[in-house]
Structures are given as structure tokens and as C-alpha cells.
Amino acid sequence: MSITIQDFKTRLQSKIHSGTLNKVQDIYNLIFEGAGNVLNAVDPAETIRIVALSNAVYDDVYNYAAPADLKGKKVIDIRPQANRTRSDNFLQNYSREFDQYKLNDSFAIENNSGVKTIRISKNLDAGATLNDSNTLTENGTWAADGTGASGLTVDSLNKVSGSASLKFDLAITETSGYIENSTITAVDLTNYVNTGAIFVWVYLPSATISAINLAWGSDSSNYLHRSVTASHDNTDFVIGWNLLRFDWSGSTAVGTSVNTAIDYLKVTFTYDGTVAIPSCRVDNIVARLGTIYETVYYSKYLFQSASGTWKEVPTADDDVLNLDTTGINVLLYEVSQLVSQELQGESMASDINYFSDREKQQIDDYVGNNKSQAIKPQSNYYRMPYMRRR
């Protein structure tokens, strides 16, 4: 049984002595406040959602966009979309422990500058390394275009993988610059055609870099290419290291590339050209196959519009509560307390005490019948060194 905000307001009016909500300044905001208090107290079963992660999950790739309405860290399950086995059993770690060990079948919820991320570690197909970017000449020869990009060298200090990264500068007045390698050891990417993706770490020293293009193929006349303007997990570029994903599906073909022998790479940086940009970097270019995973979680959106769009704040009388009978009662008694406090009636204190007692009873009943299924974060105080994944 779910009801509209109008139905809820009608029930709410019967709880207050004046019988009207006309003196309440912003009833929608008050209901929203009450909803937040209820969500702090219980994990409503009616708010469970099952949503596929926005990106496939890849081996050795850890950051993924969390659902926008994920309630705190309240994840119930992470599971493959198909062919689940008993080994697909994820446990939640605290952020530091996850980053230290990255144990198989583990995850952590992490917040950074207002962006919530699910960090997932899952042993999957290891992929195919195209170039580890540790030297200029060990696997083919890297060169800068000499106009937009120059000063190509190896940086053994600032890197994300292996022993080094490739560092170069972007010139003022130009708007693009690239590095390329046309003689890498040929790699067979037949299994990745239209299903895989190529990952590249790039270091962006300036916010004026707007896009990165990756070309891969047989030579400079026969290749595929794709541009991206955001990191792998769909977050904006940041100054520093960014993991980029170039999906094969949807890439643009130039000539005819031989997918059984990919031996050409080109990384192009697009920027506004108003200032020179020193010390850009590229590291670890790897093709990977992904697996679609779903998240099962508690939503912080306690309402939905008449058209079915879930929302955090009610804004119309025909919005619907994502609660069943007992859950509605919990919210009703919580909002009744807030309304009583705002109206400041003669019997305010006794009313609040009554509503508070009734709410506690309803919460006990609700929790008794709807135990939280969220996976609690856990930490182990000691791990043997061999348990570290990478």
C-alpha cells in the first residue's frame, strides 16, 4: 500500500488539533526532513533497488560510479548480471583496507569532493597489455609530433604502474598534440572487437585539457579511434592521474585495421592553446574485457513522481511515498512531531511525547519484520602479506 503526498497530508491533518496544515510554512520540506530522520532510523525494504552499474566491471580497475540515490554505504549485494556462482560473494571493507589489499570479491564506498564511488575488486579476465609505457624504445619507439607535443621523456618518479610513465609538454598556440608508437609488438585483439575497451592512464596538469583521443590499429592509415571527455567512472577530468576507458564499440574506423595484429598506438591531447602545458603523462595501455554487474541497495529516495521517477524531495501532491503500511506510519508520527513543534500549540510537549512513543513502537514493529540486509563494512586487524592481491 503506497499513498500520495495528498493522502499523507490528509492523514497528517487528523493528527493535529487545528485540523489544518495552512499554518505550516513549507509542508513538502517538512515531510522531506521527516523522511531523512526515518531513513536514519531504518532501512526501508520498499526502497530496495536493483540497478546495473553504469560501466562494466574490469580486472585491475577499481573505481565505478555509485548509484546517485545510494543511501550511505547501504549496499545489499553486488552480483553479475548472469551466470552467478557461489564464489560471487562480495564483502564490504573500509576504504583504507580496501586500498591496501584489494582482495578479490571486496568493495568499499568512498567519497571524494562530494562524489560517491563504489570501489570494486574482482578477479576477471586479465586483459592484454599493448604497451606498459615504461621506456621509449623497449616495445616499439615512442615519438612526439614535435609541434603540439614535444620533450618526450621517461618519468620514473610520477607513474601509476611499472617503472615509469611517458612525459611530454604541450605547446602554446597549438590546440592538440600527440605521442605515437607505430612499432609495438603486435597484439591479437580479436576477442575484444566491439565488446572490450582499452584503458590508458593519463596525467593532466591543467584544466584546459578538454579531450583525449586514442587510436589503435595496424598503422597510421589503418586504425580505430575514440575521444573521451571524462574519466572511466564518468567523473570529470581532474588535475592529476585519470584512468580513461576507450570502448571498442562505437569507435571510428579509418581504413581497415587488422585486429589480429594491433601494433600502432597514438594518444592525442586536445586543449585550448592559451598557455603551454608542461609535464603531461601517459602510462599503461591495456585492453580489457568487462562483465556487467548489478548493485542491490537501499535508496535514499523515499518518494517518486506520478510518472514513476524516484526523487529525494517531494514537490507535488500527486508524488507517491515509497513505503508500505507500517513504514507510512513511522513517517506519519515523525512528521507529526515536526508539525507540532512548528505550530507551537498549547499541548505541543504532550503531543510530541505521544507521537515519539508511537513512532518508536512502529519502528520496532517495522524493524522486526524488515531486518536490514545491508552488508556492513568490516576490517581484519591482521593479514598475511601473501593475501595482498596487488
Distance between the termini: 49 Å
Helix content: 10-25%
- Helix-strand topology string: HHEEEEHEEEEEEEEEEEEEEEEEEHH
- Mean pLDDT rating: 94
Largest sheet: 6 strands, antiparallel
CATH class of the largest domain: Mainly Beta
Q: Helix tally?
A: 5
The CATH architecture of the largest domain comes to Sandwich
Record field, number of beta strands: 22
Q: How would you describe the shape?
A: elongated
**Structural class, please?**
alpha+beta
Q: What are the low-pLDDT stretches, counting only 5+ consecutive residues below 50?
A: none
The value of Rg in angstroms is 27 Å
| Percent of residues in beta strands | 25-35%
Number of domains: 3
The CATH superfamily of the largest domain turns out to be Galactose-binding domain-like
Give the topology, please.
Layout: H1 5-13, H2 27-41, E1 48-52, E2 63-65, E3 70-80, E4 91-92, H3 95-101, E5 106-112, E6 115-121, E7 128-131, E8 142-144, E9 149-155, E10 165-170, E11 176-181, E12 196-204, E13 209-219, E14 222-228, E15 240-247, E16 252-254, E17 264-271, E18 277-289, E19 293-299, E20 303-304, E21 310-311, E22 320-321, H4 325-343, H5 348-369
Parallel strand pairs: 4-5
Antiparallel strand pairs: 1-19, 2-6, 3-19, 5-6, 7-18, 8-11, 9-10, 10-18, 11-17, 12-15, 12-18, 13-14, 13-17, 14-16, 20-21, 20-22
Helix pairs in contact: 2-4, 4-5
